[in-house]
DNA sequence: CCGACGTTCGTGTACGTACACGAAAATAAT
DNA sequence: ATTATTTTCGTGTACGTACACGAACGTCGG
């Protein structure tokens, strides 16, 4: 096969030749700049279409001195919010990949326990006048005025992790909470059969409680859709410390010793797991079903603390939605859209992964 | 924050200035080309290190007329081997991303039912003298002489899907078969409890039977590791048509009507599912446990045929290892290594995903 | 001492696109 | 008709790197 298969690429030069104009004119057409007669413009556009012209990004980015600056506004990582480590890693991964194409990413962080910090940092983001923003709109009320200002200034923004549908972002990248709860229910039912089930919401006042509720909805919907009549109890714990969680669980199990599975609607499952670990060791003697068949424990997020209990066979499954990929895709989409001028998907739901102790080691978070 | 944060990048020009030489000399040093005095070379290398010089890939690829040609050698897609559609899609995805950087990918296919076709196509690949090869070494005996020739000619190659560890490839990207079987066992046990289990291998003579065995090993290992004494039966079906599969299953269920779960070691699970569907509709009246509690069905691969049965609630779980990502990463790694000159991971095991009817719609294959 | 040859290095052009600048043509104003 | 103004377009240079070509210098044999 001596086929050279010389993949012929046509550039502005060829377009200019065919249109009997200079490459500068072609360039003007390509970039929608003024100063070209309508007739000429049409002719050139025609030729561009005919040749299926694909600009050489290498040359384009090289010649353009323009530097794109993106900004990210996400929760700071803390003990309470390990979760955000992953999106940050994804953002940094994307940054390292496109840095060489003249893109910088400035990162701003807010405190999930402090709405004011969001507003403050959002202000700083605006002042830096970036070419695009990646934001986790955890505080809806505070996010709306922020993105309105962005729209005024024509700064595109993408949402990750939480969506605010009416706020026409460039795109949304995040989990499908309802279906993740739905899947959680399936896993729970699959292992429990007819047994009693406990749903646990652990969140502070300030937390995005809506997230948890949406998962719970999905969870309950599954049982309804499948005509299962499992007894589903639920407790809301508004104090995230171990003691308070243990106390609540202890009380609940005293009332319902026959609970067979626990579904925790967020990553705080490790606290619940700690309770069960102690229990396994003989603590909480007042909880009657100590020593019985172990309780199935299912929750959320690939965090070190959670993996630990996965290994110890206390947590059974973790549901994850690739938080790092969320950050990665967010930046990539900004790049796609702003630098390359290509369209992006409006809504991108992340896959809903099931992590067990048998596969967590190859899970790419 | 008026910080301009002007990320200062130094280029060959600056290096040349500092070394009191021309950029051509710097270029020679960077590319390890001869014709530079040792003293000059050392000096320039020193400066390169000091400045932490990062070549501008845009300019580099633009200026270099060099075109990289990669070749892929994977099984052709057929009804029997839908699986390979996904890696091919991944390859094409990667190709479209790096095409603009002067990389072409020529695809060669062999017939999984014909070892000779592998040898023939491998020969064609060699004749095309590519700059790198992505190969699925399905036929080990035929692959070894092939990659030996590659090494002779200094053509790097990466393995996907199957590894041949001693053949020092650039890297391996593929599934961890053992652990996928291990996970399958967990899922099976989780839903079955103590029940009887059936392992089904469906493969033609020529198939890579080793793959299936490895999964089965993992499957059995899990039960051993966890001290479970489930009765595990096994059937080998060497004729892949529906009739033959149905006959074998029918016979097995006649002997063991109390089998509670079936684990199929590859994507032919749809054939097994078809059997259960018919059975549900009242066929195979000779199989005693018709109408009883449905049998749990777990197998492999995100194929349309399989998804269909997932939806119909006949298949319970599919284990997938992102075959498209395997193709994608394979090409990306060739690019990383050959074009960018960056090192790549030697072994990359794909995540082991669990696909159920509750999450398949957001699964990215 | 001269030419042949090897070593070491610099000059110059090219890659495909972006854009500043100014020229030419068309139109309007005088 | 002439000048002023606007519209339309071309020329030329730059981006950072790759590489062909040849210049300058030294070495060596005769």
Give a structural overview:
Two copies of one chain form a homodimer. With 365 residues, chain A is an alpha/beta fold. Chain A folds into three domains: 2-64, lambda repressor-like DNA-binding domains (434 Repressor (Amino-terminal Domain)), CATH 1.10.260.40; 68-174 and 323-350, Response regulator (Rossmann fold, 3-Layer(aba) Sandwich), CATH 3.40.50.2300; 177-320, Response regulator (Rossmann fold), CATH 3.40.50. In chain A, 44% of the residues lie in helices and 17% in strands. Chain A has helices at residues 12-19, 23-30, 38-51, 57-63, 85-98, 115-127, 140-152, 177-192, 209-225, 242-255, 269-280, 304-311, 323-339; strands at residues 68-75, 103-110, 132-135, 157-160, 171-174, 196-202, 232-237, 259-264, 296-300, 317-320, 347-349, 353-355. In chain A, strands 2-1-3-4-5-11 form a six-stranded parallel β-sheet, with helices on both faces. In chain A, strands 7-6-8-9-10-12 form a six-stranded mixed β-sheet, sandwiched between helices. In chain A, helix 5 runs parallel beside helix 13 (323-339) and helix 10 packs across helix 11 (269-280). Residues 1-7 and 287-292 of chain A have low confidence and may be disordered. At the A-B interface, helix 4 and helix 8 of A face helix 4 and helix 8 of B. Chain A binds a DNA duplex (30 and 30 nucleotides) through residues 11-13, 21-25, 27-28, 30-31, 33-37, 40, 55-56, 58-66.
